[in-house]
Queue: 2 jobs
Job 1
Amino acid sequence: MDFKGQHILSAEQFDKESLLALFEEARKMEEIVAGQRREEARGFEKIFDGKVLATLFFEPSTRTRFSFEAAFLRLGGKVVSGADMMTTSSVKKRETLYDTGKTLSQLVELIVMRHPEPGSVDELASGCSIPVINAGDGPHQHPTQGLLDLYTIWKNFEGKIDGLKVGMVGDLKHSRVMHSLREFLKHWDVEFVFVAPKGLEMPGEECVEDLGAVIGGMDVIQTTRIQEERFSSKEEAEKHRGKYVFDGEMMAKAKATAILMNPLPRVDEITTDVDYDPRAKYFEQVGNGLAVRMALLAMVLG
Ligand code: NCD
């Protein structure tokens, strides 16, 4: 599959072969980053020389925006960044996303965008003559987070994803990360276990509520916070708070070989003492995200 010049809007665009090719590239990117950190040989980090990336964020972000920007900078490109587009861009003056896309296409080579509305990134992309990458469109999808989560699984299980039991725990209704990761994992023979509070189930899937009863069978435990900004009121979200907490006691029930993941931010679903558990991979995921995004950017820009 050739991603050169393509928009990256949803997980469904990827087949297994292109995922594996991306991961091989990500491995190389990890070495480039390691070299940069050691201030050693800098072979190939001029590939985006003369190119400009625009990041358009209409929703808060720490990891996704900074890792896309760091990825582009590390490969020699330059970045213009809109971290607060809802209030600071002309969208505030009712300019359409389509026109915003038309405009940015005159200025930069690539766009990364996040927005609270499902389909919004597609709308901007419809006005663009340059590639657009979806960095999260409301509760719909977050394909690059799904990619880095899958990469984390692939690395930790040395490429052997078939046969794993993958647990997804938390607000599965609103988590775009879970939606994208589930899509990617369909290319492998995995067994899913969905654990969610009543009313926050994964669309179209059988879910269970009792985490303690099923955690012991999971090889991969992907968790996420209650996505409170997607609820009609703060009170509605609060009802579900504290339902699943990964602390020492809960982790004692998990397999010794399991990995615990979370796209972050965590709020109260993982206690900080668990950070020292070797099964905790959520900060490793962040580093993997840098490498995966470097690889994806390189593929998209050819
Ligand atoms: C996720 C998101 O924005 O969907 N964060 C991220 O990109 N790492 C998860 C979340 O906000 O809970």
Note: The chain has two domains: 11-142+287-300, 143-285.
Job 2
Amino acid sequence: MESVSLFAPASIANISCGFDVLGLCLDNVGDLMHLEKSNKPGFRITEIKGQDLPLETEKNVAGVAAQALLKAYKEPVGFKLKIDKRIKAGSGIGSSAASAAGAVVGINKLLGEPFSPLELISFAMEGERLACGSAHADNVAPVILGGFTLVRSLEPLDVIPLHSPLELAATVIHPEIEVKTADARAVLHNKIPLKKAINQWANVGALVSGLYQEDYDLISRSLVDEIVEPARAMLIPGFDQLKENATQAGALGCGISGSGPSVFALSKGMTNAHLVAKSMAEVYDKIGVPYEIHICPINPNGVQFIEPKNK
Ligand code: HSE
């Protein structure tokens, strides 16, 4: 195999209660990438469409993730990458994770799959480190594994794929402003009152149980964030009203997608997810914030290989 084309999906990190540990993979939002073997050892990005991002390997999240993989592979091999970047940087749905994960999954395929999914997650995390200074895995894990994932530990890396109820659907509204993850992390408090910590870990456990039991009421009761959301809500225009509208429209829960500014809601079934989208759109229509909306099921597959259209 000399080349691969792939779809690298967007993702929602945190899922309210699970800051830096929970994530889920989205279905129809993502970047397109084309990777080719090259006679010249090393990794080069030859084209980025859709966004103004650096082509230099060491400045690009896909580049540093690819370099981490090539360093571990040890033999001299070469690859070229073209990216059609469709997830906006700084939108809160794992733009950097998609690029980093797509690059390493694609190279691994061209090398005959020498690396495990867990190793690929660790390479892709280097992209996250470049993007925001913190090598979190809650976006790259669901992009590589699909579905819902839980990062139990970073050292050693321990990632647990979770059950994903078939009927769950996500609505994501993206106010067209950029919030840098590093800035959204800087507003967080380092100390947490014990009572809030207790509530938060109770909700993480309950959410995981709710997913396995396909208990939508339990999922709904557990989609609560007492720690991160209160600190970050001020970064997002109309956040309280979005949440109010989504809940009124029947969402199981609503919170900040990753580090924002996108706001997500989970619903039972696509019909409800569309109603929730309408209710959230009304908020931004009223206050005049430009936005885009994504409505989709949870993606069980993660990165997917596709037929190349135009290389
Ligand atoms: N867990 C990370 C954060 C995700 O919330 O900062 C960033 O995409």
Note: The first strand starts at residue 3 and ends at 13.
